[in-house]
Amino acid sequence: MEYIKVTKDNLESEHICCAISNNKDVQVASKKAWLAQQFDEGLVFLKSTERGKCFIEYIPAENAWNPIDAPGYMYIDCLWVSGSFKGHGYSSDLLQQCIDDSKAKGKKGLCILSGEKKKPFLADPKYLKYKGFEVCDKADNGILLWYLPFEENAVKPAFKECARHPHTDEDGFVLYYTSQCPFNAKYVPIVEQTAKQNGVKFKAIHIQTKQQAQSAPSPVTTYALFRDGEYLTNEQMNDKKFLKLL
């Protein structure tokens, strides 16, 4: 398998594999605009040269759009290998390239989120354990922070206090989301409209800066849905899923 690093120079010409559609699609435009802002913050987007979901995205933890304290670490936003790409060792290839790059940049280790059990859009905890990651912190909603240190006695990453006890003070449905996930550009407006049509109180909060993300009331910021203050899910909703939830 050959891989290519997406940069500012080739961003417009490269296919963004997590949203398979034409470059004029709102999902692609949203994701590429977000990536363009993050490259100056040290983000790396490494993907298969073939079309499909086979990529890794990581960034220095100080610049991660998540409420974590992990100075000197590299944070993995997403490691996604699916479909026909599964079972060929590509996830191990991508992870190893991330490890090698992070060590070359003098990082203390890696960190990443997952659930206690496999959750949509989060890393598989069984895979992380197999690769040598260990749990270093846990939020009340079952979201775990894992780390892979490169040196002995490295200080463990941790959630910020705002993320350790996910909660909001607002009634109804409240959604925190970012443009890191391209699907949000399409489906958040659909869910907003569905809620309105059904007389459901719904508020979408689009996190648009690193500072906002790092003070969010949830470990997961790409998509965090609350109801009457309580955390519900990180799984992106379309209209059918939201109606089923209702």
Protein described:
The structure is a single chain. 26% of the residues lie in helices and 27% in strands. With 246 residues, the protein is α+β, with helices and mostly antiparallel strands. It has helices at 26-38, 90-104, 125-130, 161-164, 183-197, 210-214, 239-245, and strands at residues 3-6, 44-48, 54-60, 68-69, 73-81, 109-115, 134-138, 143-149, 158-159, 173-177, 202-206, 223-227, 230-233. It has two domains: 3-162, Gcn5-related N-acetyltransferase (GNAT) (Aminopeptidase, 3-Layer(aba) Sandwich); 164-245, Glutaredoxin (3-Layer(aba) Sandwich). It has a seven-stranded mixed sheet. Strands 11-10-12-13 form a four-stranded mixed sheet, covered by helices on one side.
CATH topology of the largest domain: Aminopeptidase
Estimated structural class: alpha+beta
Cα Rg: 18 Å
- Strand content is 25-35%
Task: Examine the secondary-structure arrangement and name the CATH architecture of the largest domain.
Answer: 3-Layer(aba) Sandwich
Terminal Cα separation, in Å?
A: 43 Å
* Low-confidence segments: none
Please provide the count of β strands: 13
In this structure, how is the largest beta sheet organized?
7 strands, mixed
What is the class of the largest domain in the CATH system? Alpha Beta
SSE succession? EHEEEEHEHEEEHEHEHEEH
Averaged pLDDT = 94
Q: Please bin the fraction of helical residues.
A: 25-40%
Total domains: 2
Quick recap of the structure?
By secondary structure, the protein is an alpha+beta fold.
